[in-house]
Amino acid sequence: MAKGLTAGELRVEDEDTLVQKLKEAKEELFNLRFQAATGQLESHGRLRAVRREIARIYTVMRERELGIITVEKETSDG
């Protein structure tokens, strides 16, 4: 999972990529929570960052669902 995903970076991704990133972020969050519960977590700030990434992904997906933003397909000039 890339660290520090911004909403702008997520808005240019296609739907399948967003779903994959969401899956990866949820898996990472699960692992971080497991580490925290067992006392093995070194970076507690990463928990917050991953939760925020998940929220950003859900926000972009919802914006598309409501038609607030759309994905612009690249057109070839050839």
Can you tell me about this structure?
The structure is a single chain. The chain has 78 residues and is an all-alpha fold. 65% of the residues lie in helices and 0% in strands. It contains three helices and no strands. The protein has helices at residues 7-11, 15-38, 45-66. Helix 2 (15-38) packs antiparallel against helix 3. The longest helix is centred in the middle third of the chain and has 24 residues, at 15-38. The radius of gyration is 15 Å and the shape is elongated.
Poorly predicted sequence stretches spanning 5 or more consecutive residues: none
**Secondary structural class:** mainly alpha
Average of per-residue pLDDT values: 87
Task: Spell the H/E element sequence.
Answer: HHH
Number of helical runs? 3
Oligomer: single chain
Q: Approximately how much beta-strand content do the residues carry?
A: under 5%
> Can you summarize the main beta sheet?
none
General form: elongated
Q: What Rg, in angstroms, do the CA atoms define?
A: 15 Å
Descriptive key words:
3 helices, ribonucleoprotein, Large ribosomal subunit protein uL29, mainly alpha, 78 residues, Ribosomal_uL29, Ribosomal_uL29_CS, ribosomal protein
Question: Which helices and strands appear, and what pairs or packs with what?
Answer:
Elements: H1 7-11, H2 15-38, H3 45-66
Brief overview, please?
It comes from Nonomuraea guangzhouensis. Keywords: Ribonucleoprotein, Ribosomal protein. It contains three helices and no strands.
